[in-house]
Give the backbone structure.
Amino acid sequence: MVNRVLIRIKVVQLLYSYFLSYREFKIETPAENPSRDKKYGYELYMDLLLMILELSGIRVNDADRHLSPIHGLALNKHINQNQLAKSLNAQNELREIIVKNRADLSDFGMVIPSIYEAIPTLPAFKTYSRLKKPELKDDVALWLSIIENLMVKNPEFMTAARKNPRFTLAGFTRGTQAIARTLSEYGDNRSLLIHARNSLDYSLDKAYDLYLSLLTLPIQICRAEDMRLDNARHKFLPTDADLNPDMRFVESKLAKALAENTAMAEYLENGKLAWESDDDLVVTLLGMITSSELYQGYMANPGEHTLAEDAEFWRQVFRTIILPSDALAEALESKSVYWNDDLHVMGTFVLKTVKRFANSNDEGHDIEILPQFKDDEDRNFGPDLFMSAVRHYGEYKDLIDKFVNTTRWDSDRLAFMDIVIMVAAVTELLDYPAIPIAVTLNEYIEIANAYSTPRSGAFINGILFSVINHLKEEGRLLKK
C-alpha cells in the first residue's frame, strides 16, 4: 500500500530534483584571460540581461536609493512581470549581482525610458499583445525584436554604451550576439518534465515492489532453514537432532499462506523477487532470528502452532529484527535509490498485513494483499499534485516570498528544499478541499524536519500559517 504520506515525500523529492535541473536560460560565463573586446562584450551582455528585468518591472538596483528608470511612465501591462523576465530573475548568476547591489545601469538611464515607450510601436509587440495567454516562446520572440530594433539598431543606445571606458565596437557586437544566443537557445524543459513525471510513477511502483519483497522474506528465510536442515541430515555422522529436526519454523503457516496467496504467487512467478541474488542477506537474517530470544520462546511453545501464532511471531520478527537490521539497509541501498527512504512506510504496511493474516478464518486464503493504492483518488494524487506544483511554482513562490521576514531571512537564499516543500504544501491546500488544513501542515512540516535543515520545520510552519490566513482573506481558501 502506497499511502499519501509516502506520496507527498516522493512528490517533494521529484519536485526538488526537477527544479534543481530546470533552467530555461543558460547564462554565459566570462571568458578566462579575456581580451578587451571579450571583457566589454560580457559586461554589455550582463547589462542587457538586467535591462530586460528593469523593463519588465523587476528592480535590479536598491529601490531605497535609486528610482527605476521607468518610474512615472504608464505601465505596460503586457510585458510587466513577463515569464521570460521571471525566468531570468531566477538564475543564480543574475541574482548574485542584484543581491550584492553590483547592478549598475546608470549609463543607460537616459535611454531606457525611450526604449520602454517605443515597445508598443513594434509589429512584434502588436502580435504579442493580441495573445490571450502568451507562452515563453512568445516572450522570447518579443524580446529578441526589442533588443534588435530598439537597442542594437538604436543610435541613442549606442551612444549610451560608449560611456563605458572599456567600450569597443567588436565587444558591442559580441555582447548583443550573446544576449540573442541566450534567448534563442532557451529550452522548454519538456523532456526534463516528462522524465521527472515518469520517475514519480517509477518510484511509487518501486515502493510497492518493496512492500511485496519484504512479504516474501518469511518464505525465503523458511526455505533457507529447510535447506540448512536438509544439509545437516546428509552430513557425515548426523546426530539424532539432525535426523529428526523440529520443522515447525520451516513449515510456518504464515510462510505457506503467503506463498499460496494469489497476488504473492503472481509476484513470485513474474520473477520480481528482490532477494534471489541475496543469499547472504537471507542467511544473515535467518541467523539473527534463530539466535534471538523471540525464536527460542516460539520454539519452546509445545504443539503445532496456529496461523495466528505464526503471524504474531513473524510480526515481532519483522518489527524487532528484520526492519531495523543493518543487513537489510545495505541490501536495499544496493537495489534501489528509493528503498531506504521507503522502508519505514512500507515496513508499517508489512506489519499491518501480517497482523491481518493472524485474524484469518481460512488459513490465510481469505486475506488479500494490500493493493498499491487505496483507490483511484490516491493513485492520481501524486501525479496531479506534482504537475500542479510545476504549473504554479512561480505564482506560489511569489506568494511565499511576501511573508518571509527580510530582517531575518533573505528570500533568495532560503534552503531550496524549504521552497519546494512550501510550494507543494500551498498546491495541496488549494487543490484538495477535502484534505483538512491541519493535515497538510503537519505532513509537510514532518517532511521538512526529515529532509531539510534543523530549523526548517518551525520556519515553514510560520510562513505557511501566514499564507493560509492571506488565502482565507482573499476567499481562495475556504476549508478548515
Summary: The mean pLDDT is 89. The CA atoms of residues 19 and 193 lie 9 Å apart. DSSP finds 23 helices and no strands in the chain. The two ends are 28 Å apart (CA to CA).
